[in-house]
Amino acid sequence: MKKYMLATDLDGTLVGDGDALKELLEFFESLPYKVDLVYITGRHYDSALSLIDSERLPIPSILVTDVGTSIYSGRELLRDPKWEQKVRENWNPHRIREIALQLPGIRLQTLPHERRVSFFVNDSEGASNLRQKLKESGIPHTFVFSSGRDVDVLPESAGKGKALQYIVEEYAGEEANILVAGDSGNDLDMLTLGYPAVIVGNAQKELLDVKSDHIFTATKACAGGIQQAWDHYYGAKI
Ligand code: GLC
Ligand code: MG
């Protein structure tokens, strides 16, 4: 039997409506097949684990943190060294920080490591200025703007989409039945990979115009939207 996999963002997607989450998890339990859970979050590792704990989320098969810069797998959720090495290439967090902090209205996020450099901006203009300056600098990076507030500057080969593609190749296999779920800008590259995907009903405005044949726009928020999409794509197969 083909594998089933839910690759989902946490805040505002899987997490955000407690009753709907409970219902979705019960629904998965009731299915005649197992749904592998892959969490792909902007949070750093400790922060993701504390959310998993406080929301009583099932431990995932794979946890991707820091907007797709780190991948943890296996029972003990150990860091994937091959991915680690891949994303470290051409990575220059010091230069990126230096350039960003010369601009007005940009505050550095406090993070426990330098696998990404993230900022808070006051508005989309602040984000555009930073995007432009970094582009002009020629430093290899990936720029992600979410929720009108968060800017993540990632290594060139990182991001939620690239991490998910790697997971499909290394862990799941292209034939797996996948559903990708998200609610904000940092989910865009994984939502548009071409796999069945859902934008949940409470999505941030940067995703509202995203339309594609393989993207289901849910009317329900958070986990409720994921369940609607699961039914849409895989319901008939039960
Ligand atoms: C989460 C992270 C934050 C990041 C944001 C957008 O809120 O905690 O560091 O900037 O997601 O990816
Ligand atoms: Mg989110």
Question: What's the arrangement of secondary structure elements?
Answer:
Blueprint: E1 4-8, H1 18-30, E2 35-40, H2 45-54, E3 62-65, E4 70-73, E5 78-79, H3 81-88, H4 93-100, E6 106-108, E7 117-121, H5 124-137, E8 142-146, E9 150-154, H6 160-172, E10 177-182, H7 188-191, E11 197-199, E12 215-217, H8 222-234
Parallel strand pairs: 1-2, 1-10, 2-3, 10-11, 11-12
Antiparallel strand pairs: 3-4, 4-5, 6-7, 7-9, 8-9
Helix pairs in contact: 1-8
Alpha-D-glucopyranose binds next to strand 9.
How would you describe this protein?
- This protein is an alpha/beta fold.
- It folds into two domains: 4-86 and 158-237, Rossmann fold, CATH 3.40.50; 90-154, Hypothetical Protein Ta0175, Chain: A, domain 2 (Alpha-Beta Complex).
- Helices cover 35% and strands 21% of the residues.
- The chain is built from eight helices and twelve strands.
- Helix 1 runs parallel beside helix 8.
- The longest helix has 14 residues, at 124-137.
- The mean pLDDT is 95.
- Bound molecules: alpha-D-glucopyranose and magnesium ion (MG).
- Magnesium ion is lined by residues 9, 11-13, 183-184.
In short:
With about 240 residues, this protein is α/β, with parallel strands linked by helices. It is about 35% helix and about 20% strand. The longest helix has 14 residues.
